[in-house]
Queue: 2 jobs
Job 1
Amino acid sequence: MNRLKLIMTALLIGGATTASAQGIMGGHVTGNVQVDGQMSHADSTIGSQDVPEKLLMNARADILYTNGDFSAGLRFEMYEKPLLGFDAQYEGEGLANYFVSYNGERLSVTAGNFYEQFGSGMILRTYEDRYLGLDNSIRGLNVTLRPIDGITIKGVIGKERTYWFYSEGLVRGVDGEVNLGSLIKSLGESKFRVTLGAGFVSKYETDEVIPSSADPEYKLNLPLNVGASSVRADLGYGNWSLQAEYAYKGQDPNTINGYIYRPGQGLLLNLNYSQRGFSAGIQAKRIDNMGFKADRSQSGEMLYINYLPAITKNHTYAFLSMYPYATQVNGEQGLQGDVMYKFKKGTFLGGEYGTDLHLNSSVVYGLDTTVTGGAGTDGYEVNSGLGQLLYGDVSVEVAKKLSKAVKVTATYAYQVFNPVVENEPGSLHHNNIVVADVAWKVNKKHSLRFEAEWMGSDSHYDADDPEHNDRRAGDWVMGLVEWNIGTHWFVSASDQYAYNDGIGNYYNLSVGYTHGATRLQVGYGKQREGLLCIGGVCRVVPASNGLTFSLTTSF
Amino acid sequence: MKKILLAFALFSIFNFQFSISEAQNAKMPQNITLKTIDGQNVQSSVIQNDGKPVIISFWATWCKPCNRELNNIKEVYEEWQEETGVKLVAISIDDARSAARVKPHAEGNDWPYEIYLDQNSDLKRVMGVVNVPHTFILNGEGEIVWQHTGYQDGGEEEVIEKVRELLK
Amino acid sequence: MKKIFIGLIGLLGIIGLNGCDKIEPEEYTVYDGAVVNWTDITTTVEPVQRVYVEKYTGPRCNNCPLADVTLEGIHNDKVVMVSINHPTGQGTPYPNQPDMRTTGGNEWDKYFGINAIPTAFINRDRTLQFQGDMSNIVGAINQALTEEPIVAIDLHSTLENNTVNVSAYMHFEKDYPDQVTLTVALVEDSLVYKQLLPDGSMDENYAHNHMLRKVVTSYWGTPLPIEVKKGDGLIGTLEFLLDSEFVAEHCHLVALVSDKKSRKILNCASCEIGK
C-alpha cells in the first residue's frame, strides 16, 4: 500500500514537471513541489521522540494550469507519517485542494478551494501556512467584482478545510471596498488618500446539545447563524497614514470561549509617519472574545474563520523568537511602537556608508474581567483597567557597514514573557538578549556570516519538574557560521548551549544547494522549535534530533 | 524498495527541473488583486515596464535575507537602471500583523522600488513561490524568463547578468 | 455610480439583518425535553424484564434490510426496538424522500461514535454492539431477557386532539446505587420510502418500522428525583403535542429507564399511542 502511494507521488510529481515543459493547448502549467523528510530519535533533554517509522515525510505538489484569464489548480498532499509538530490527523495522502478560476479585469470567479481575506482579516481570512500545517481554505464559491475603478465587492460561500475534511458549518460573507480617490477626481489629485471598507460574515451550523453549566437539565439555545461584521478605513495625508478597523461578532457560544453568549469585539489601529530614511509608527489592538470558528465545538488552531495576528514584532533571531507571543483570542490589549532611522553617509554617526537604527517595543496585557457565569451566560464583564501582563519587549538594532565587504548588525533586547500565553503555568520570565551578526563578503564568490547570541534569564530549568522545562528560559549562548559559495551552495554550523542549565548542546550542521527555483537542504542536529533563518530562507521548524532534508522547487 | 522509490521521486524532480528551468515562458498573472502602499486595490497587470525587463522580488519586513537583498540592490540600482532600463517591483507578503509597516519600512530603508502588498499571498501562490526571498525576471513581454529562491550576498550579480542576457 | 453604492449597502444590509441570530438572555438555555412530573406510588407493577434494541440504519445502506429481517424475526412484546437514521453517509436521505434524521437520534449517534451501519446495541451496552452481520444478536437478546429486572415498568398513554399524555409506572425490585433517568421517545411504523437492497437494487416502497421520530424527554433522559431503593415506586407523567406529520395509529411510545452515567438501559417498555 505504502509502495503504491510512493509510486503515485513520484509519477504525479514527475508528470507535473514534465507537463510544465510543454504547455497544454496554449496554456501554461506552473507550480511548486516540496518534500520534507525527517529521521528523528529520542532525546529526553530536548523532548524529541523516537520515530517508529524511521522516516517521516511531508510532500506536496501545487499544480496550476493557466490559459489566458482561465486557470485551474490542484494540490496533492502526502503525510507518511507527518513530520514532528504536524497534527497526526494529517496522516494520509490525496488530492487536498482543487479549483477552477476565471480572472477577468472586472470579474473574478473561483469555484473550489480558495483563499480570501476581508480587510485585515479580523472577520474572515482563509490562508495556509505550510510550515505550521495550517490550511483553512474554503471549498465553495468566491466572486470578486470590480464594477468600476476604485470599487471592489467580494462574496464567498463554502465550507472550511480541516485536515482532510470540511467543516460542519457553512461560511458566507460579503465585503465591499471603495477607494474615494479613484471616484472623486479632486480628492485623487489632493494629498489625501481615503479607502473605506465594510464586510459581513455569517456562519450557519446545525444545532447540537451543549448542557448549561448552571443546570445540566437545560441545554444551550444555540444561535445557528453567527454573524460578524467590520468597518475599516485606510487614510493617508502626505507622509502620514492611519489604518483602522473595528469588528463586532454576534453571540457565538463555542468551545474556545466556554460557550458564553457575550458578543465579541476587536479594534486595530495603525498610525505611521514615514519619509526617506525615517519612519515611526504605533499600533494598538484590543480584542475581546473574537475566536470565530466554522465549527463551534472545535478547539485547536484549525477552522478559524478570522485571523488575529500577534501585535508584537515578528523577531527572527533564534533567542528573540524562542518565546514568541501568541494571540489570546479571548481577550488582550496591546501596543507596539517602531522607529527606523538612517544616519546618512558622511555624518558623525553615519560614517562612510551610513548607519541604520531600528527601535521596537511592544506590550500586551490581558483584559480585566469580572466573571459572571459559565456556559449559557454572558460569561464576564470587562472593567476599564488592564489585566495581567502577558508579554513585553524592547529591542534596539544597529546595522552598520564597516567597509565595502563587512556589515555588522548588533541587537539588544529585553523581554518579559508570561507562560500563560502558551496555557502553561509559571511566573514571568525576564530575558536579556544580545545578538551580533557579521556579514563578510570575502570575494566575488565567497561570503561568510557569523552570528553570536546570548540570552540571560531569571527563569531556569528545574530538574524536579522537567515536564514544564520547555516553558523555562535558561541562560543561553549560541554561535553560528554560514559559508556561501557562489549563489548555489551554502554550509552552516551552529550550536546553542544553555550554560547554567545542563541540558546539552543544540548543534546543527546544514548544507544547501540552490539552482534557480530549486533548493535542497540537508541538516543534521538537534533542533529547537522556532522560526529558523539559515542560508537565506526563513521557516518554522519543530523540535527534532537527527537528520532532516527539505526540497522545494517552483516551475 | 521504499527508498528506491523515494530516490526516484527526488530524481524525477531534479531531472525535469533542470531540463526545463529556462525552456518555458509562462506569462506573469494579470488579474490578481494587490494593494499599493497607499492602500488602493490594483490588478497585477500594473507590473510592467514599457517593454523593458522587470525584476519581481517577493519579500517580507521580517525576512532578513530579503532585506539584505533589497538593501544591496539599492546600492547598485541606479547603475542598473541606467544600463538596462530594468525596474524592480518588490511584492511584500506581510500579513495583517505587519502589513501596515510595509510603507514605513520601505521608506525608512530609503528603497527606490515600486512596492505592492500581497497580504493574503494571492500572487505568491499563483506564481508558485514557496519561501521568501524569491526573485523573478520578466522580459519585455511580461513573460517569466528566470527565477531564483533565497538570497546570498552577491546574488544580485546573477540577477543583473540575466537581465543583460535578455537585452542581447 | 450611486446605484452601485446603494446596491452594495442594500446587499450588506440584507445579509446583515438575516445572517445573525439574536438570543435574549432569558432564552440562553432551554429545557432539554418535555417536563416530567413525579408522583410516588405504593402499588406494584408486574416485574417483566424486557430488552431494548437500538439500531442505526439508513436508506442508502444496502445491508440494513438484512438486519431488519433478522430483528423482525425475533420481535415480540418483550423486545423494544428503535431504529435511528444515521445522520451522514449512508443515512443521507434520497432526494425528495422523507428525512428520518432527528436531533435526538443524531446526539445518540454522535455519543456512540457510530461510523458504519447497520449497527445495533442491546440495552446500550457497548460490549453488546453488533455491526453488519446480525446473526449473533439473537442469542444475546435471549440472554439479556433472562436477567432479573431491577425495575418494572408499565407504560400508558392517552390521546386527546393532538395532545399525548404519558404515564410511566415504575417499581424498583432492587437497590440501585447510581442516579437513574427516564427517557420517553416516539417511534413510528410503516413508513414507506426508498431503501437500497442487498443486491444493489432499489425498493421504492420499503416499509420502515420502529423509526425514531422524536425524543420526547431530554435526549439522555430526565433524572428520577429519588435515590433508588428496593420497593420504591413512582409515576412519571408528561405531555406533548403529536406532530401532524406522524400517523397516530402507526406510532409507539418507548420508555427507557437507564443509568445516568453509563447510559445503560436497566429496563424498558412500549405502548401504542392512546393505550
Job 2
Amino acid sequence: MKHTLGASLRHDSALSHATGQARFLDDVAEPAGMLHAALVPAPVAHGRIAALHTAAAAAWPGVMAVIRPEDIPGENDIAPIGSGEAMLAEGVVEFAAQPLAIVVARTRDEALAAAAAVTADITPLPPILSIAQALLDPHWLVGPHTMAQGDLAAAMAAAPHRLSGRMELGGQEHFYLEGQIALAIPGEDGDMLVHSSTQHPTEGQHVIAHVLGEPYSRVQVQCRRMGGAFGGKESNASWIAAAAAVAARIAGRPDKLRLPRKLDMAVTGKRHPFLYQWEVGFDGDGRLLALDARLTADGGHSLDMSGGVVMRALTHSLNAYHVAALRVVCGAVKTNHVSNTAFRGFGGPQGAMLMDDVLGRVAHALGAEMEAVRALNFAGGQNPAETPYGQALEGDLVRRVHAEARADAGWDARRAEIAAFNATHPTLRRGLGCFVSAFGISFGIPHLNQAGALVHVYTDGSIRLNHGGTEMGQGLFIKIAQVVAGVFSVPIDSIGITATSTEQVPNTSATAASTGSDLNGWAAHNAAETIRDRMAGVAAAHFGCPVGAICFEDGEVLGVSGNQRLTFAELAKMAWKARVSLSATGFYATPELEWDMAAVRGKPFFYFSYGAAVAEVVIDTLTGEHRVLRAHLVQDCGRSLNPAIDRGQIEGAFVQGMGWLTSEELWWDAQGRLRTIGPSTYKIPGSRDVPPIFEARLLESAPNRADSIFRSKAVGEPPLLLAAAVWNALRDAAGRPHLDCPVTPERLLMA
Amino acid sequence: MIAFTLNGAPVTTTARPTTTLLDWLRAERLTGTKEGCAEGDCGACTVVLEDGATRAPINACLAVLGQLHGRTIRTVEGLARDDLPHILAQADGTQCGFCTPGIVMAAWAHTRQGGDAHDALAGNLCRCTGYRPIVEAMGRMADDGATAAAFAPAAAEFGDFHAPVTLAAAVALRRAHPQAWLLAGGTDLGLRFSEHREHPTVISLMNVAELRGVAATPAGIRIGAAEPYAALMPLLNGAFASLRPYFARLGSRQIRAMGTVGGNLGTASPIGDALPVLLALDAVVETSVRRLPVGDFLRGYRRHALAPDEIIVAVELPMPDGPLLAEKLSRRHDQDISAVSLVACLGPRPRIALGGMGPMAARAPGAEAALTDHGRDAFRAAAAALAQDFAPMDDWRGGAAWRMAAAQGLMQRLWLRLAHPDLPAEPFAVPA
C-alpha cells in the first residue's frame, strides 16, 4: 500500500470490460415506457430552408412527437463557449447532415423510419468546402491572432537563404467505438436526469438547461464510463444530451437518442484541418533566422471550441524550437463543414507540425541531415528557452528525449541499414524520421483549471470517491483512486469508484486537455487529506499523543508506541462516535496561470510534457503503399502515477496519431457531403498497422519540476504528436520534403 | 419457431427472422455484444459460430435469426470469466472496453483456428490501446478444447423467411417469390437489415446442399456458391498458393466465415475481390440451368446474366496454365475494400483481370496482348496498355489518376514477383 502511488495497477474495469459486464449507457436497463429519438439530417451543405414538412412523419406508426425548432422550450442554442449555435437549423442549413428536426417514437426503428419521412424545401446556396476557398473572402470564426517577436522584416531580408512553403493537413474523425448516446428521464418540478456518454457533464447540464429553459439546478447529468471519446464527447455529447432532453420534455416520457454510426460521423465535429503558408529565412547551417507563417484552421460552420484550438495551435506553432524573429498568424475560418471540435491535442498537434515542415524543407534545401538542423534550432541550450509568448521551455529535457529516442532506435545503424536496402531493392524504399514535442499542460482558458472532489469514509472503513473527471478508457478513475488510497494508506480495493455526476461535484471542467489526473488528483487528494486530518485528531485524542505523531500506514493508524495501533476501520467508527465528519469536498485550482489572448502573452501552461520518437517506414514506389516498421518512443510522464496506464496512453495515442497522418481521410463530395462515414470507408489503423517493432517507454527519473500531484505529468494528448515521426520518415523515404497529410498511398504516389 | 443453441443452452424465439442477431441479443439483455458500426467492419459485435470442433467468428450485426436456426452460438457471456478475459485484462489489453468483448470472442475463435494474430484481429478495431497488449495477450491464450454439436441442416420456413436444403426447393421458392432476396452469407445484403432496417421476403441459400462444399481436383477447385471463403482458404496451395494471401485480405475472418463466392457473383460489384480471380482463371459459373464462363456472367455495373428463376450453384476454378499472381491495393492492408485489384494468370495466352478500374471487374485485353514475355519491358508495356483498357472512377477509395498509376505499378510488381521471388515485393512483406 505504501507503493499504491506509482504502481502499475490494472484499469479498475479491465476484467468487467473483457467479460462484457461493464455497462455502457446502451447496456443499462431501460426505464419503463422509454421512447426513442432520431434526428432528421439536412440533405445539403448550404441552403435556405423554405419549408419543413413533418406531417408524414407525425402520422408514422408509433410516432409520439416531431420536434421542430420552434418547439424547443428554451433557447435553440447549443453553443459551448459563444452563443447562437442552433441545435435544429433555423432559416439556413450550414452543413450537410445538420439536424432539422427530432422524431420521437415508441421504437428506434419507428423513429428512424419516421425521421426519413421528413422532407424540407431548401433553396441551395453555394457552399464553402475548403480553407483555400474560404480564404478568398474569409469569414473568421476566430482571430486571426498574431504571435510575434523580433524584427521580422529585417531578419528575413538579412537571411542568407529563404524558402517558402505550403502544406495541407487533414482533419480526423474520433471514431470512438461507442457512438454518441444519451438517455433523458424527466422528473418532477422540471427536473431532468440525463445519462450521457460525455467528457463534460457540466457543459451538458448547461446546454440542456438552456434548451429546456430551466435553471441549472434542475438538470442532472451522469456518466459512469464512455466507450472512447478523444475530444469528440465534449460539445457534441452536450447537444446530443440536449436533444434527448428536449424530446423527453415534449413527449413527457424518458427517451434515448443513440446515433447510427454513419449519422454520428456525418453530424459530429472532427479535428480541425489546417492550411500552412510560410516563408523562412535561414543560414547555411540551417539555423532559422526569421519565420513568417500563417496557419488557418477549418472551423466548420460555427465557433464551437475553435477559439481554444487556435490558441493551442498558435502557442505550439514553434513546438520545441526557437526562432529569433517571427510572426505566426493563426485563425479559424468558417466553412460549410460540420463544426470542428476538440480532438486529442486540441490544435497542439496541428501547430507543432509547422516547424517540422519548415525544418524538413530547410534541411532538404541545404542537403543537410534533418536531425542536425533540428538540434541546431532547439529552444534552450545555446538558444533562448523562452517561447514567443513568454513562458520558458526546459531545453535540457528537449535534448534529453531527442537523444534517448535516437539512441533507443540505434539511429546511425538504422541509417546504414536503410541505405543498403534502398541501394539494392528495385521498387521499395525505406526512410527514417524523428519528432520531438513540447506540449503545454493546462486548459488554455485559465479559469477552467479547477476541479472538485467528494470523498466519504464509511464506518466500516470503506471509502467512496467521486470527482469531476470522467472515465473514457484513459484510466483516470484508477489513478485518482490510487491518490486517495495513498492519502489514507489503505488497499486500493477500499476505494469505491463512482459515476461522474453534476449532482455530486458541481461546476466542473471537461475531462480534457490531458488535465484529468492533474486537476482531479489534487482535488481528491485535498478532500481525502481533510478527512485524514480529522481522523488523525481523533486518533491523537484516543492515543494521547500529538496529532503530528499519528501515522496512517498499510491500513492501520499508528501512534507513538507499538501498542498505539488501530485499524483504519476502527478509527473510522471511532470518529463517527466522536461525531466527527467523515465526508469532505476537495478543491484544486492550478496556480500561477495567466493568459492574454489579444496580446498572445502570458503563462498559460503549468508545465510542459516532452517526448520524442523515431520511426522507420518502407514505401512502395509503384503504388504508394507504405508501412511503419519500427517506432521508438520516449515520453516524459514526470513521476508516473501508474506506468502501465501511461504506457497504454502513449501507445494508443501514437497509433491514433499515425492514423490521422496516414490512413484516415475525410472525403467530401462536390456537394459537400462527407462520404467517408463508417469504418468501411474511413480507415483507422488496424492491428497489423502497428509497427512490428514498437517500443514505448517513459522518460526515467524525471519528476515534474512543477508541483503536480505526485510530481506526475499529464499523458493523454502529448504522445499523439509523436506520430509525426512517421510523416517525417515517409518524407525521407520518398525523398520529397513536401507531403500533405494524411499521407494516403494516393497522396504518396501522386505527390 | 427459430431454435438455436446459445452459450450451451437451447433457446427459441418468435422474433422476426430478419432481426439481426445483434439486436436480438441486446434485447435479451446479453449486452456484452456491442454495436459499433452495424456494417460488419468494427468487430465489436463479434460472436462465435460453433460447429463440432470448428469455431468461426462472425459479425452479429450482419447475421439474422433465420440464418441461425439449428446453429450453435457463443457470446462473451458464455465464456469462463477467469480464462481469456482475465488474460486480456492482466495484459492491459482494455482501455475504454467497448471493443473488448468482440476482441475476446475473436481471440477465443483464434485459439482454435490458429494462424497469425493479425489475421485474427483484422475484423476488430480498437481505438484506444494501439493493439500491442492485445496481440501479446493473444499469444498467451490457449485452446480450451471445448466442442459443440455438429450442425445438421434441415429445411425450415419462418413466415417470409425460407431456408431450403435442396436446389430443387430453392428454385421452386424462387419461382414462387420472384421479389425475394437470395441470401447467402449476408456480408453485403446484411447491411440492408442492420443499417436500412429492411424486412423483405428471403430465400436463404446457406443450407442448400448442392451449393455447399469445396473440393480440389486435378482439374482445379470447385466451390459451392454458398460455401464461405473460409472453407476455400485451406485449398489454396500449389498453383493456387498466391491466392491465399490475396483472399486473406478479403474482409476479415468474420467476413470470410459467412461471405461466399456466390454472393460476390450475385452482387456483381465492381470491387468484389473474387471476380478478378475468376476472370483471370476463366472460371466457369454453374447455375441451376447451365454452365457459362464468368466473362459471360458479368454484364456490367452490378448486372449479371442470371435469369429471374436461376440460382448460382457453384464455381469451378480451372488449374492455372501458368504463374498465377494476385495483387490487392487498398488504403489499409486489412479489412478494406480494394481500390484496385489485379489478378494475372500468365500462361501461353495471358489472362489479366482488374477490379476497381471501371463499372465492373474486367479483363485487360491491351495489357494481355502487350505481355509477350516475362521480361521487365513487357510488363512495362502491359502497364502502359492499361491506360487504354480502363477508365477508372474517382471516389473516396481513390482518384482515377492514382487508380490508373497504381494499377500500372501493380502490373510492374508482377515482374518483381517473378524475377526476384527472394525480394519482398510490397511493404507488408518487408521484415522489420
